[in-house]
Amino acid sequence: MSSAPKRIVVLGGGFGGVYAASFLEKMLRPEEAAIWLVNRENYFVYQPMLAEVISGSIGLTDVVSPIRRLCPRTQLVMREVEEIDLQNRVVAVSPGFRPRRLELPYDYLVISLGGITDFHGMPGMVEHTLPFRTLADAIILRNRVIHALEEADVETDPEFRRKLLTFVVGGGGFSGVEVVAELNDFVRGVARHYPRLPREEIRTVLVHSGERILPEMDEGLALFAQTLLSKRGVEMRLKDRLVAATSEKALLKSGGEIPAKTIVSTVPSAIAPVLKRLDCTKENGRLLVDEHLELRGYEGQVWVLGDCAFIRTASGKPVPPTAQHATREAHIVATNIRAAMGAGQRAAFRFEGLGKLGALGHNSAVAEILGVRVHGFPAWLLWRTIYLMKMPGLNRKVRVAADWFNALLFPPDLVQLSVHRASGIAEQHFAPGEVVFNQGDLGDCVYVIRKGECEVLREKEGAQQLLAVLADGDYFGEMAVLSDTSRNATVRARSAVDVLLIPKADFNKLKTTVPAFGEVFRALAKSRAPEPE
Amino acid sequence: MSSAPKRIVVLGGGFGGVYAASFLEKMLRPEEAAIWLVNRENYFVYQPMLAEVISGSIGLTDVVSPIRRLCPRTQLVMREVEEIDLQNRVVAVSPGFRPRRLELPYDYLVISLGGITDFHGMPGMVEHTLPFRTLADAIILRNRVIHALEEADVETDPEFRRKLLTFVVGGGGFSGVEVVAELNDFVRGVARHYPRLPREEIRTVLVHSGERILPEMDEGLALFAQTLLSKRGVEMRLKDRLVAATSEKALLKSGGEIPAKTIVSTVPSAIAPVLKRLDCTKENGRLLVDEHLELRGYEGQVWVLGDCAFIRTASGKPVPPTAQHATREAHIVATNIRAAMGAGQRAAFRFEGLGKLGALGHNSAVAEILGVRVHGFPAWLLWRTIYLMKMPGLNRKVRVAADWFNALLFPPDLVQLSVHRASGIAEQHFAPGEVVFNQGDLGDCVYVIRKGECEVLREKEGAQQLLAVLADGDYFGEMAVLSDTSRNATVRARSAVDVLLIPKADFNKLKTTVPAFGEVFRALAKSRAPEPE
Prior knowledge:
A five-stranded parallel sheet of chain A has the order 5-2-1-9-22, covered by helices on one side. Chain A has 15 helices and 34 strands. The radius of gyration of chain A is 26 Å and the shape is globular. In chain A, strand 12, helix 7 and strand 13 form a beta-alpha-beta unit. Chain A folds into three domains: about 5-40 and about 80-115 and about 270-355, FAD/NAD(P)-binding domain, CATH 3.50.50; about 125-265 and about 355-410, FAD/NAD(P)-binding domain (3-Layer(bba) Sandwich), CATH 3.50.50; about 425-530, Jelly Rolls, CATH 2.60.120. By secondary structure, chain A is α/β, with parallel strands linked by helices.
């Protein structure tokens, strides 16, 4: 080996990336290798327990561990990966406090960037559904659920209240099942603090494309889970799936609709755009690697693992995206980097999995461990024990154990931890027939139609009068914002409509500082002003 | 009493509001009174422990309690107070999921809206300093501090790194001292996880207008606190105060400057605009009440307490804004509402205070209890015991005690819990001579000058060439954003400058949907295009 340490850059701070860095720290001395790790956050998320954040039964930050503590010798870079240059062996990351990219050259590269949620071709899903991958997602979902309960408690319109009290989860795999189980327990558990809420109006719905939930599991266990969740109040919509969403409802493939203000989607998954742009072989939309986890065409330089890699086990089956597989892949990657540096033999990935565990909330779970099937309370104890053992760091183990103990003694908590309120310019999707705003509403934003048709209607002496039809590129809603009054007409979508929404505060700032912008809307408002009555 | 229950509306969920609602629940039966409480959040913040959120020694949500649990019979409305109509006895609150205000009529009104941070006449303070009042403020400050450490760890420019490692706190009262003590302990405590950080570059600075800190306390104790904090590394800037801020530095009244990316201000305080607009007598900027805490002119209808009220004790001294006073005021208010409803006698506020407690971080505090002065570790134990006893709810007591126990065993945590990244259209302030952006930076936003003068400079063959001077209403920075390149010139403030900043993502959305907006910038960019070289 040469005298200068080799630069190893690890992309991603999930199970794959953090364990790879950790194994590298153990296998290579500081004078042999300088290890860098790039991750958007400075913590590692213990994914198997993420759903417990919804109910707050685990402290919000106890489900994550600081990466600097797990990999003390690794240089963490808390930025986004923006570009990977495989030819020149350089990774560019997003700017920090100053608008400058940072470039990280490497000798060896480990890619473990996981998946992203990709709603391509599903109208309104990006704007109106909540993903469930990161700690931020879990906290945002918790906040949304509590906000919906708070609002339902003061809502007098029963139809709107039912929408506030309906929670839809898309995807019946492990993640979706754990989310709907926690969510259902939580909502029904805290409802007693909202005395005016009609409890029978609470609905939790799991939408799943298969004939039964938990396709990864044995059929008997999956049916056990299905029966248990139904008994606890979760509605199942099987052989169906989410295809679109608006702020008022979920639209299903079957043509059905579920009126709801809170929609969570745990499918579908794709690799990050920065990986899509890479010029290398892909399979099933993921980066293809060989059994040594080396990227085709970049053997001895680039390794890929975790959810962004397409790997087959020795038996030929594709590797599922679980923590137990990712940590073992990480060990193979570290071993093979050491081999590339001239020490030891290359290893091949042959792990077939030890078992499967799925939590069902409220002291129940399903498990298949080394061929044995367990369900109910024993499975739940097993689930807790295994995951607590596997959780990295004594500090976290103690905290989580204390949290669980506390959760046994006290009911779930309903603190809504909302850190920001500012919304900013946003996109929205409306289904045909949906109301954008009602006559009499507060004028809180201005709209621009990006695609679709809207009709403008005025209520007068009980009759509804069509004032205008608006289409792509048309503006509306400026009048109430400019004159600081309430809406003088109702706007309704005629077709599926995508709009850009400019909140009043942003609109007013732009209006005063960019006069040409304000002028467009002032002229429009003038031309639309109603005749004096 | 009449047969229909009277409507009592309480505004504010701090010590004053929550304790008033709680006492009312005890003094009046459900058939006598329907109690409503309006608060922006669904939780009550246990203010004395808020600073501990910075270091994470208390779990992020353990310092707050759900209001619904503290006042189970009170109807909580999680909205903002927008208008109080004292004549018609109606309170209007902000919209929820739908753009409609809610109106709450009342028979009796309790106002306990606390204070807000008011930076009127202090340029750049709103944009570039962090307040410290709410749980969200505490979490945002914690995130900022960790972000600054992460960035400092990968920063190669020593001058910029020193700015990242400098933390300035304005105000040497209880709040400012507790914040700077926690912040100093935390930053120095976690620094060992950032091996490349030069620890001697870490600076924490407390700026205070008086001759000594903690003006509320006995001089001996204040000097003890001052010496202790200095020993731990806090710099004191006495007889000085913050007057302005930019993203790069704090500007002081003395003319001094402290280059720093993180500036916290714990002063000054004012009442909320909705209270300022009320047509009633004010003193020292607060609502004047009599010894029965009744609002002048609305006796028997409206009571005011806590930080937004101006109250004198029996001895004639103005009441300080502390929890012990607010809870006692709440009892007087509840008693007097009961009296107004015809039961029992009115009570007058005569409480003079039991003592004062201030935490200094790291197992130290100062206290004056019933005339006895204590400092150091005994005062810290006293501080913990008293506040743990006073904390409402057994659940919280257990959680906080467990947190403290955990904090004794394990070092502070450095998880950065950032829930959102979107920034949106914002305002910024620059001091004369400061650089807005540098030639070569990424083009991440477009600027509009609201006030002041900027110069555009180009570096060419080592020489700096003045290209233009821009003033109020001028745009700049559009070129790099439109052409997706880096900045081709440096822009520097000539005078104090206020700008509106439109982030690239928002700019692009507006450009495509509002053509007139895009046209302004395209024409400008064309007129400014450099000659081919």
